[in-house]
Design brief:
- By secondary structure, the chain is α/β, with parallel strands linked by helices.
- The strands form 3 sheets. Strands 9-8-7-6-2-3-1-10-11 form a 9-stranded mixed beta sheet. An 8-stranded mixed beta sheet has the order 14-13-12-15-16-17-18-19, with helices on both faces. Strands 4-5 form a two-stranded antiparallel ribbon.
- Helix 5 packs across helix 12.
- The protein starts with a strand and ends in a 33-residue tail after the last strand.
Length: about 475
């Protein structure tokens, strides 16, 4: 079993500022966490944070004693909803282990926590070092502890600290990547799990690049089969694949395994709305990349990002042509979504009416034209022109933006590139900073909620088991 911790950039910054006020004394915070409880993985997902005031603590350079009165509301919520409690404190001197004082403190705290809560699920304790790195452990009802294997931060930058014993990729294969971005970034990529939703003209070049960057694990999702009209842009597809009606994800998996570069592949020839196993596999990912046109699909991925604290790259391309060679617009946009800040809907990429239309088209494709004709619903464009050179350019930009989030290399900080638009017809590049975009007032309350009785609290998914 793998035990992991995920924190949004908002909560991480809040915690780090509190734990290191500049006086070189230990400080402490406590978080309420949702959970992802999988078969081989258990994630703690920070939902809310209580910063224990300095004047309620006895603080020194190597210990902190604090009153627990402030966390009673968190304990009540944890008991009611089966949430986790996470204690996080600082080691301002940089000591990279739990001390004997920490062991005694945690034993007393979690004995009390398990007295408040029922169930066998773990709670957590972690330490932040002066450079911002975090390590930790989880406790069980018998007060035995196991180390956290991975800790992920989904903020302006993507930080991943992997403490598992899994070996990195083959160094010789990654030599040129290491020369460009360093050994640490190469190791990070080799231990990352990335979900790609949509494996066609944009998704396939994204997948190709991630494999050749030595990303360790990929989850590929696309319900469609290869057709002759796809062969102009889907990498690694052949006429024979179209003639046999093979699923896109199966063709891509076969090609990736033949590369022999060490990437593990899990595929789902499913619509993201129609398979709970697929949805939960995506929830276990460290990064999500959406290459889909449908607004309901994009909105579902945005919810996954929020509930499970996963950074999300959305790639959208608009190519307007008259069908006879006249091109009026070629525009592509990469949106980087981090939990608790702006969303695709708050950025104006679609609205409630668009979601309604997309949902009806997905559920009632045959009746949809009649609904549009009678003005019950907005029309949607389901067949658009697509050209490999445009798809590959936007795919490459998105992958480079991912690299900039894990290994910042641009002159401007990553937060300046929350939304990047490339307009080929106008010959311009426009980017928007995260702090200039509207926060999603609805989704901010869903950050880190994790597993729910109905997946993502979406009624349309209530039938999935």
């Amino acid at each position: 079993m793998q035990y992991q911790l995920s924190i949004s950039g908002i909560h991480y910054d809040q915690i780090r500022k509190h734990l290191f006020p500049g006086d070189h004394l230990e400080a402490v915070a406590v978080a309420l966490c949702g959970r992802l409880a999988g078969k081989g993985i258990h994630k703690l997902l920070v939902n809310d944070v209580v910063l224990i005031p300095y004047d309620e603590c006895e603080r020194s350079a190597d210990f902190v004693v604090w009153k627990t009165d402030r966390i009673i509301p968190l304990l009540e919520k944890a008991a009611k909803h089966n949430y986790a409690i996470l204690k996080i404190h600082s080691h301002p001197g940089g000591y990279e282990a739990f001390s004997s004082l920490d062991d005694d403190s945690d034993t007393r705290l979690f004995s009390s926590v398990f007295g408040w809560t029922d169930g066998d699920y773990p709670h957590g304790s972690s330490i932040m070092l002066p450079d911002g790195r975090i390590f930790g452990r989880v406790f069980f009802p018998n007060l035995k502890a196991e180390a956290l294997n991975k800790i992920c931060i989904a903020g302006d930058t993507i930080q991943v600290w992997d403490y598992s014993t899994k070996a990195s990729g083959e160094a010789e294969i990654g030599r040129r990547t290491i020369q460009a971005f360093g050994e640490a970034t190469y190791r990070l990529l080799s231990k990352c799990k990335v979900g790609i939703i949509g494996c066609s003209g944009t998704g396939s070049p994204v997948i190709e690049q991630l494999v050749r960057l030595s990303v360790g694990n990929l989850v590929l999702v696309d319900p469609d089969k290869v057709e002759l009209k796809n062969l102009n842009r889907i990498l690694n597809t052949k006429r024979a694949d179209a003639e046999k009606g093979r699923h896109k994800v199966d063709v891509l998996k076969e090609a990736i395994l033949e590369f022999g570069l060490g990437t593990d592949i899990e595929v789902f020839a499913k619509n993201i709305y129609e398979d709970l196993t697929c949805q939960r596999a995506l929830a276990e990912c460290d990064i999500l990349i959406g290459c889909v046109d449908s607004v309901d699909g994009r909105d579902l991925i945005n919810h996954l990002s929020t509930y499970y604290l996963i950074p999300y790259f959305d790639i959208g391309i608009k190519l307007e042509a008259n069908g006879t060679g006249g091109v009026s617009k070629i525009v592509g946009t990469i949106n980087y979504i981090q939990p608790g800040k702006s969303s695709l809907i708050s950025r104006g990429l679609y609205d409630a009416e668009d979601l309604k239309a997309a949902g009806l088209f997905r559920m009632y494709p045959e009746q949809f034209p009649e609904l549009v004709k009678n003005s019950y619903i907005k029309n949607i464009n389901v067949s658009r022109p697509a050209v490999i050179s445009v798809n590959m350019m936007l795919a490459s930009y998105a992958v480079n933006e991912l690299l900039n989030r894990v290994h910042p290399y641009k002159v401007d900080p990553p937060g300046e590139f929350a939304q990047s638009t490339i307009d080929l017809t106008e010959g311009c590049f426009i980017h928007q900073a995260e702090d200039r975009l509207d926060i999603d007032a609805f989704l901010i309350s869903k950050v880190g909620l994790g597993d729910r009785k109905i997946f993502l609290d979406l009624v349309e998914l209530s039938h999935l088991k």
